[in-house]
Amino acid sequence: MTDQNGGHLLSQSKICVVCSPELGQDTAMQLDILVKDNGGEVVIHEEPSPFPPIQEFTHIISSTADFPAYQSACDALIPVVKPQWLQTSITKNKLANPRQFNPDPRLFFSDVVVTCGDIPDGDKDAIIGGVMAMGGLYSPRVTSQVTHLVDLSMDSDKAKTVLAKKMGAKIVLPHWFDDCLKLGRRIDERPYTLPNPEILHAGPNAPIRGAGNPDIVGASTPEPTELPTPSSSPYQNRNSSRNLSVFEGKHVMLSSDLGIGSHLLESIEDLIRQGNGIVTKDLTKADMFICRYREGFEYRTASRWNKDVGNLSWLYHLITHNTWTSPLKRLLHYPIHRDGLPAFKGLRISLSNYAGEARAYLENLVQAIGAECTKTLKQDNSHLITAHGNSEKCTAAKEWGLQVINHLWLEESYAKWKMLPVSDPRYTHFPRRTNLGEVVGQTKLDRNVLEQVFFPAEANADESRVMQSKDQNIVANPENNKNMNPPKVRAKSAAQSPAPTTTTTQAATPHTGKSSRKVSSLGEAKTPLASRFLEDGKENDTPSTNSSRKSKDAAAARIHSIAPDIALYEKEKKRVGGVIYGGRRKTDADLVPPNTKKRRSAEPEEEDEIEDDKGDPKRQKKAKLPPISIHLVITGYQRWIGSIKKEDSDKRQLRDLGIAIVQDAKKCTHLAAPSILRTPKFVNALAYAPVIVNVDYITQCLEQNELLDPSNYALKDKTTEKKVGFTLAAARERAKKNQNKLLRGYKVCCVETIRGGFDAFKSIVEANGGECTLFRGRVSINDTRRDDSSSDVEENNVDHSMKNDVFLLSGEEPEHAKLWPRFRQMVFEVGKTPRIVNVNWLLDSAMSQEVRWKDDYEYITNEEDSSD
After folding, report:
1. Mean pLDDT score of the chain, rounded to an integer?
2. Which of 423, 431, 562, 568 lies closest to 505 in space, CA to CA?
3. HSE-CB of 402 using CA atoms within 13 angstroms
């Protein structure tokens, strides 16, 4: 077929077809014929043969994103498309948009072609936009390609056409798309399918159908106990006699931290060898590295070199299914953290409505993230993870004020390695008549997160020395390392120009120094750790004078690839103090000694915030700077908004005048603001009784380039003072007497999703001597109040009737109100008085520097009104 310009449609295309369980050899051969008939070139790739160089191709056809070269293709901006892309391009006689045919599972509507029946225009636009954003297609007419018709009944013209022509499209309610988009997952259409959708007819207590889930088969635990039985590859040639081919030509390294016995270890190694794999103890040769924990030099090095790093569960999965899959595709196929995520320590999580392998998977995931998974639900639990909202556990959890969420919160917190807010609507959404167990295990690990947290680019000193010796050996013996995957070289900024390439072994690593480092570096490399990367007796080999041209080219290419790192190292080496954490020692002869001369005047640390860091000795003569006379906290200053350069310049000028800008209220002597504000900076600073000036003081000091008297610029805001019922002068005097003990002994709790943020209110309470904790359904109360005789706070400023009160900072939102009964119950149980208040109580008290009370501060429920 020729295109509109008279040439073949694919004449400029070279396409790689990736075989997989979903795309077998027969289908690959059909695609091969279609591509060639339209003028293109084609290569069929089957595991375990090495993937061809990715840069050769214009497109890659695959039914799945789970093949080794997928990430490399994305990095190289080479489109990965499903087979339907080819059919569509040929039908339209032009290359179709590859995005709509991306096999990435995150585009969960990629198999959907939707058309809309008699539904409102607003709903229609929203559905079309959501489907296309998630990889699907829209058709204005009913065609054979349509997979879903969105309608409200079977009486529309399009619905009658689908039925009459038996087109096979599913007729679903708009609610299905809405629930899928809210969850970010594709759920089963059956409860939404016309003519009798379950969500409209089933009773509220009717049991919800469970569903199988292939995503967690063989991936429900990070520590399997049974050795798997190999099976034939589902897309392998039937005439092949080989039973296990996933390790064909692969070097596999097993870490010592697996903790398995010698008998089991031998059995695993035998299985790898049966599949023509090679068991190695040399990480430089390994293609796969199997370990238990995300720690240690070998783990970090293998990860930086883009080896396939997985755990024993992943290795067993490869053996069982005889098909390669990424260890990042399933959360428990990747090594776990030994101690879990710190934010989850102490959490007690229970599960509800998950069954079978899905339940085992979530139980193991809870343990892997560092929390405790409880079989039963009690009041001391913190969270309930449920697949739907119909169960006794869900009812009890809501009554007790526990967090009720779906499993997506747990999975995505684990993948991003931080506790995500439970207030996200995606985590509290439970579609009617759907058991979310069917979408368990679809979350993938993010390699960028893993790299930032567990194997960042900068190495410590020991690793640098080992890498240095290893790289020297690579240049000396390039032929012995042809199968090694080179370390991933990070892109540097344009300012870091590559250093000139050279053929010396000393320049072959970004961690080497000057010539004086040669002997010491090689000497340090002779450690048990380094010996795994060097062949016995060859630490000091040098290139032969008769080396082939090929060897020289390989060495030159290797040097060129790491030239940016060499340039960066040379730059860092010149910094004051040297590259202490990059492999150099303080005793090195070429280390630039730091300037240890004492300053003429003792100056606090805030000065570092406004100093130049370019290493220019002339700019570092701190003796010329005047001593700091004012430590200033600034809030509400409009002059610097949108101009970082202006802000930096002004701060330097102010420092030259003796004014240091600080962020920590504890260190401030002065506070500058345009008026009385309710910002965290203003409220926190008030507790330390600073001199309060108008921001005009800053402007005038800058314009006159002179340190002016702050008493001439005192902040005056009579209007706000009248409104809030106190004067700044009186509040400052009370702050001096309180000495940051206004709320000492007060117990303040705060709901997690408070408007303004928990951290802001916590800082205000603690600046005034109180204790502030996050309320997640539990209250821990230690009575720290002192006797009246020992109080350092002015007696007239303390409301003694509130000494036994426990405060909960909350809003009026329904999600906050549902926590109130639980809070009151727990406070009453310890003999205290619960007070659920809005944030005005805390702000008014902290700003006036006296504990204030008005009935308007407290939320009163109907039950309390009736009891009164």
Report:
1. 78
2. 562
3. 25
Long-range (24+ apart) CB contacts under 8 A made by 312-316 are: 312/222, 312/223, 312/224, 312/258, 312/260, 313/218, 313/219, 313/221, 313/222, 313/223, 313/224, 314/290, 315/252, 315/268, 315/288, 315/290, 316/218, 316/224, 316/227, 316/228
Taking Cα atoms as reference points, which of 327, 316, 318, 332 lies closest to residue 366?
332
> What does the block give as tokens for 116?
């809309």
Cα angle value 318/323/325 (rounded, 5°): 70
Let me know the angle formed at the C-alpha of 179 by 174 and 180, rounded to the nearest 5 degrees. 100
From the number of C-beta atoms within 10 Å of its C-beta (0-12, 13-18, 19+), residue 586 rates as exposed
Could you give phi then psi for residue 666, rounded to 5 degrees? -60, -25
Note the pLDDT tens digit of each residue in 615-668.
Answer: 444 444 444 688 999 999 999 888 887 777 888 889 999 999 999 999 889 999
Report field, pTM of the whole predicted structure over 0.85: no
Do the beta carbons of residue 631 and residue 624 sit within 8 Å? no
Reply yes or no on domain 342-453 having CATH 3.40.50.720. Answer: no
For residue 293, the 8-state DSSP code is: B
State the sign of the Cα–Cα–Cα–Cα dihedral 149, 151, 153, 159.
negative
Burial 198-210 (b: 16+ CB within 10 A, else e): bbeebeeeeebee
> Secondary structure of 223-242 in the HEC alphabet?
CCCCCCCCCCCCCCCCCCCC
Give the number of other Cβ atoms within 10 Å of residue 779's Cβ.
20
- 832-850 pLDDT, tens digit per residue, is 889 999 999 999 999 999 9
| Peptide bond between residue 48 and the one before it cis (omega within 30 degrees of 0) | yes
**Cα torsion at 193, 196, 201, 205 (round to 10°)?**
-60
Q: How far apart are alpha carbons 171 and 72 in whole angstroms?
A: 39
pLDDT at 558: 57
Matching fold, domains 217-333 and 342-453 = yes
DSSP state, residue 632: E
Q: Which residues pair with 834 in a beta bridge?
A: 806
Residues 217-333: name the CATH superfamily: BRCT domain (3.40.50.10190)
Tell me if the bond preceding 195 is cis, omega within 30° of 0: yes
Give me the residue spans of the domains in the chain.
14-101, 113-201, 217-333, 342-453, 457-582, 624-716, 740-867
